[in-house]
Design goal:
Order of helices and strands: HHHHHHHH
Structural class: mainly alpha
Number of domains: 2
Radius of gyration: 32 Å
Number of strands: 0
Shape: rod-shaped
Distance between the termini: 83 Å
Number of helices: 8
C-alpha cells in the first residue's frame, strides 16, 4: 500500500488550525494528554504480561515445561546416580506426565511449525525419561545384587520400597527361577547376566 505524501496533509491541518484556533487548542490538549498517558499504559501492559506469565507458570503449560526442562538439564540429570529410588520414581512419573502433555498439545495443534517444535520438545523429554529409567534399572540391579550377596547389607536406596528386598530374600531361599524372573522384571536386565550374577 503506497504511503500518501505528508505535505498535503500537513497543509490541510495547518489551514484547519488557522481557521479554528479554539478547536485546535482542544485537539492539541487531548493529544498531549494522550501522549503523557502512553508510558503509564505501556507500564500497565508490561505488568499485565508479567502477571499472565507468572499465572501460566503456576498453572502449568508450555512455560512450566520449559522451566522444568531447564531444571532437568542443569540439575537433575547430573544427580540421578545419587538419588534414592523414590526420587527417581517421582522424576520418572513427572517426565511421563510431560510426555503425555506434549502429545496432547501436538494433537491440538494443526499448524506444522508449532507441531515440529513440540515434537523436538517431545524427543528431549523422552530422552530424559529414558535416562531416568535406565539409571533406575541400573541402581536397582546394583542394590539387589548387594542385598543378595550380603544379607546384612543396609542401603538407603530402597527406602520406602522394602518389599523389593523382602521378595529378593524370599525367592533367594525358595526358588532361583522365580528369583531370576523377579530381578528381570524389576531391572530389565538380560537373563544371562542375571543368572550369572545371582547364583
Amino acid at each position: 500500500m503506497p504511503v500518501p505524501p505528508i505535505q498535503p496533509i500537513l497543509k490541510s491541518v495547518m489551514k484547519y488550525m488557522k481557521e479554528n484556533p479554539q478547536q485546535a487548542a482542544v485537539i492539541i490538549g487531548a493529544v498531549t494528554a494522550g501522549l503523557k498517558k502512553l508510558p503509564d499504559t505501556t507500564k500497565d501492559l508490561l505488568e499485565k504480561q508479567r502477571s499472565l506469565k507468572k499465572e501460566k507458570l503456576e498453572t502449568g503449560g508450555a512455560s512450566y515445561r520449559k522451566n522444568r526442562l531447564n531444571k532437568y538439564k542443569s540439575k537433575f540429570l547430573n544427580e540421578l546416580p545419587d538419588m534414592k529410588k523414590k526420587e527417581l520414581f517421582f522424576h520418572l512419573l513427572e517426565t511421563e506426565d510431560m510426555v503425555e502433555s506434549i502429545k496432547g498439545d501436538i494433537n491440538k495443534t494443526g499448524k506444522a511449525n508449532p507441531a515440529l517444535l513440540l515434537k523436538q520438545e517431545l524427543k528431549t523429554w523422552e530422552a530424559i525419561q529414558l535416562a531416568i529409567a535406565n539409571t533406575m534399572d541400573t541402581l536397582d540391579y546394583e542394590e539387589l545384587l548387594m542385598h543378595y550377596h550380603n544379607y546384612e547389607y543396609k542401603g538407603d536406596y530402597f527406602e520406602g520400597f522394602d518389599l523389593m528386598i523382602e521378595n529378593l530374600h524370599k525367592y533367594k531361599e525358595s526358588d532361583k527361577r522365580k528369583l531370576h524372573l523377579y530381578i528381570k522384571e524389576v531391572t530389565n536386565k538380560n537373563m544371562t547376566k542375571i543368572e550369572r550374577d545371582f547364583l
